[in-house]
Design brief:
The complex is a heterodimer.
Chain A: E1 7-9, E2 12-14, E3 18-20, E4 42-44, E5 61-64, E6 67-70, H1 78-91, E7 96-101, H2 106-117, E8 124-128, H3 139-143, H4 145-158, E9 163-167, H5 174-184, E10 188-191, E11 195-197, E12 200-201, E13 206-207, E14 214-217, H6 222-235, E15 240-243, H7 249-257, E16 262-265, H8 268-271, H9 275-289
Parallel strand pairs in A: 3-4, 3-16, 4-7, 7-8, 8-9, 9-10, 10-15, 15-16
Antiparallel strand pairs in A: 1-2, 5-6, 6-14, 11-14, 12-13
Chain B: E1 5-18, E2 21-27, E3 40-43, E4 54-57, E5 60-62, E6 67-73, H1 77-83, E7 90-97, E8 109-115, H2 120-131, E9 139-145, H3 154-159, E10 163-168, E11 175-176, H4 179-189, E12 195-200, H5 203-215, E13 220-223, E14 239-241, E15 247-249, E16 256-258
Parallel strand pairs in B: 8-9, 8-12, 9-10, 10-11, 12-13
Antiparallel strand pairs in B: 1-2, 1-7, 2-6, 3-4, 3-7, 5-6, 13-16, 14-15
Classes of the chains: A alpha/beta, B alpha/beta.
The complex binds flavin-adenine dinucleotide, flavin mononucleotide and FE2/S2 (inorganic) cluster.
FE2/S2 (inorganic) cluster binds next to loops of chain B.
Chain lengths: 305, 264
Amino acid sequence: MTSGLNVNIAGVEFVNPIMTASGCCGYGEELTDFFPLSRLGALVTKTITIEPRLGHPPPRTAETASGMLNAIGLANVGVDRFISEKIPFLEKQKTRVIVNVGGKTIREYAEVAARLNDYGRVDMIELNLGCPNVSQGGMEFGTDPRMTERTVREVKKVFARPVIAKLTPNVTDITRIALAAEQGGADALSLINSVVGMTVDVDTWRPTLTFNRGGLTGPAIKPIALARVYAVYERCRLPLIGVGGISTYRDVLEFFLCGATAVQVGTALFVEPDAPLRIIKGLADYIKTKKIDHVSEMVGKVRKY
Amino acid sequence: MTKLTCEDTFLIKRRDLKNNYFSYVFRPYSRAVRCKPGNFVHIRLASSDVYFRRAMSVASVNPDREEIEIIFKIFGRGTALLAGCRRHAPVNILGPLGNAFSFPRKNEKAIIVGGGVGFPPLLFLASEMIRKGYPPGDIEFFYGGRRSGEIVERVRIRRLGVNLRPVTDDGSYGRKGLVTEAVEDYVRKHAGERMRLYGCGPAAMLKAMDDLGMKYHLPGQLSLEAPMPCGIGVCLGCVVPLRKGGHARVCRDGPVFNIGEVLL
Ligand SMILES: Cc1cc2nc3c(=O)[nH]c(=O)nc-3n(C[C@H](O)[C@H](O)[C@H](O)COP(=O)(O)OP(=O)(O)OC[C@H]3O[C@@H](n4cnc5c(N)ncnc54)[C@H](O)[C@@H]3O)c2cc1C
Ligand SMILES: Cc1cc2nc3c(=O)[nH]c(=O)nc-3n(C[C@H](O)[C@H](O)[C@H](O)COP(=O)(O)O)c2cc1C
Ligand code: FES
């Protein structure tokens, strides 16, 4: 463990503040080709739902300026196969495991959470309250403060360890949703999920994705994510996990300064699967040269005009 | 050494094959020795409008010199950017990725079918088969293109000793028509012989190959393409539907699939 990088969120210790974002690292197996997962602060799994899902028909991703659109549609193995096939692998990994949970109804969220509660390997769960890529569920949970609060509350009743609420940026005022999640008993917030977007093929006049629209991610959304993290930091006391467009340690520093305690790296993994290693090293070097004892000293310290 | 890394290497040999085709050799690439026919590498072309890497099949390797070769055609933004690389330019390569072709049995004829820029992995396949002792005369190398200029590296393919069978849409080189028609004629004429099909090319060609394999009960493999955000199996963007149901990731479960496996 590099000193000065460990963080504590809701009583859970992480060796460093770098996590891999949901949907961008599968269930962890593939990344072990590049580095031992113990190097990560945490791995956040693809969203798990009660039933397996195939997702939308391809094409379901498209390249955009400095990023991408995706409408994968929450393709996942379902909670049963996650438990039987993926948990045994995760048992052997010396990293924190955060399982991202989704559902079409509050009950489905709670059911998945209740199943996962029995597996101590699941250190935390993260509720996907804002997936733009499903017609039912996902988005409406994260755009309505009351639904957000109720979903978090019901999940907290059945899951004994900390619960993170992952927020969508596709709302008018994200701080209202953040406060609702806090009311519901969330232990931390991660923000942001992808930003609704669309691209069209002008030769065929068809949207590039079969779902017509998708979620924009990658470097293109970093400024949006930073502004949201900062807005929530000013109004809400919960620890924040910053997500959106991070590919270098300097991106991470911006998130710290805007109020994030930890961060997740998503789309950047597609281009540089070993990005987390470079980022961790960059952070360690930065605090050393700047004579900062601990990354937490930077949280929220942006010198606002 | 971890199984995979993003490795910095250099473009040390750049050949213009004309008609927008190029052959690039990269060195030093420490994982050259691990590349098998069918594998691809994922090439970084950092620019703001080409965010993803681009997949390129390995066309040949020289493990002793730590070299790999790719052959590509300018198609869109990414390949145009790649074509602009000068000799000695640094290039970041991730790989080798994906699965590999399985070699034919000794008593089977190899019917190799490349369409357009689908031929590079098949060139590697044929070379490796021959290197392992497979008789070059038992390899039928069908190669389809729009016109004569699109059948590149002919001399090199012939030099392997295989039977090169060029087919062009306009008949400007080799037989006129679709490459799969030529393959079907061959298969019909040699009915009863043991054959194994290998294909890589445009979607319509792969579909015709798949139909042909099933119609004549011939085993074989097809190498597929899909837009690949990650190339390593984590994004689920490159999936194709399987005949038995469910999806497979072209990048990790493929790109090589058995005939009949994928709903093309
Ligand atoms: C396993 C594999 C091996 C390949 N091997 C070779 C090779 O040896 N030689 C060669 O010339 N090309 C090869 N390709 C295709 C190559 O990776 C490029 O994707 C393709 O040429 C288009 O790239 P571009 O950037 O020029 O086009 P762009 O204009 O940037 O892309 C055009 C559009 O096609 C999409 N797209 C990108 N990649 C693909 C793809 N692979 N299939 C379908 N659509 C795509 C883009 O998202 C974009 O919307 C291979 C692809 C795969 C998957
Ligand atoms: C292909 C893809 C799939 C994703 N799947 C999920 C998902 O299943 N659940 C979720 O909460 N977020 C998902 N996300 C969103 C990411 O976790 C993250 O919030 C978003 O991509 C922004 O971060 P980035 O710019 O670093 O990628 C996905 C993103 C991408 C690109
Ligand atoms: S390209 Fe990401 S899973 Fe295949």
